[in-house]
Amino acid sequence: MITAAVLAALATACAVGSWRFTTARWTSRAPRLAIILWQSLGVSWGLATTGAMLAYAVQPYGTGVLHGLIEFGSGEAPAHEWDALHVLALIAGLTALTVLIAVLLTAGVQTLRARRRHRILLRLIAHDDPGVPGVRVLAHPGAAAYCVPGLRSQVVVSEGALKLLSEGELKAVLAHEAAHVRERHDLVLLPFTALRRAMPWSKVVAEAQAQVELLIEMAADDRARRYCSPRRLATALLRFGTAGAMPNPNGTLGVHAHHVMARVERLIEPLPELDIPTRYGFMVLAIALVTATPFLWVIQL
């Protein structure tokens, strides 16, 4: 019973923390750290919520969540008699856990299929250009620049973008897309997309997804500015914003018009970084959240 109560308290704390985190102002100063904390909150909330229900459900076994589920799956009889509340908690917990896993797998499969279809399409409507080696050029007059992540990742720009951008701006945009590929931001975003499908009614989940989308763009901006002028990237973003950039195909990451001014201001006048004690404090919190929930699944309090 104590394990279930602790997990329920942890799930509540993660939910409240996520709600408060949506209004945090420091995230743009440390986007990678903010992404890690968002991931920790999401994983901990999911495991704690389902774990609280399952901990109460397998309480008659007296062996903890994980061991109780193993004994239940093997057909062993509990030490104490089950009642209707324990049965309902088991059904609710297993259903919630199944839904979370199912939407994650479904989102992953749909994304992989969309990328495969788009790669096939690129073979037909894109070509190589000696001026931009290693980049596929899309035969389209609109402005577009995006990456298709995966084992065979590709960076794509449109002919319209090549005409729109200067050489320095194009280099900055390509560095930004290469950062998305290198840091696998598609995998960062996938759980939040899946959670959004599972809970379309939740404003906190919608805000979390939107914030993570912005944070991975900022993280890619930070990576790109190591190899190019931040002002070149800022002017490229403004050009895409005023030209009306094409929407990104499903399963890809790329330049779009959302939050352009926030990113431009951050590139031109960067805010001071978080101090080291604050960074370590948030890292310790993230690690504690990720490790505490699995630990509570194993032990019996």
UniProtKB/TrEMBL annotation:
Family: Belongs to the peptidase M48 family.
Keywords, sorted A to Z: Hydrolase, Membrane, Metal-binding, Metalloprotease, Protease, Transmembrane, Transmembrane helix, Zinc
Biological process terms in GO annotation: proteolysis
Names of the cofactor(s): Zn(2+)
PANTHER family: POSSIBLE SENSOR-TRANSDUCER PROTEIN BLAR, SLR0241 PROTEIN
Protein name, entry field: Peptidase family M48
Keyword Signal on entry: no
Signal peptide positions on this chain: none
InterPro entries referenced in this protein's UniProt entry, alphabetically: Beta-lactam_resp_regulator, Peptidase_M48
Matching Pfam families: Peptidase_M48 (PF01435)
TM segment ranges: 84-109, 280-299
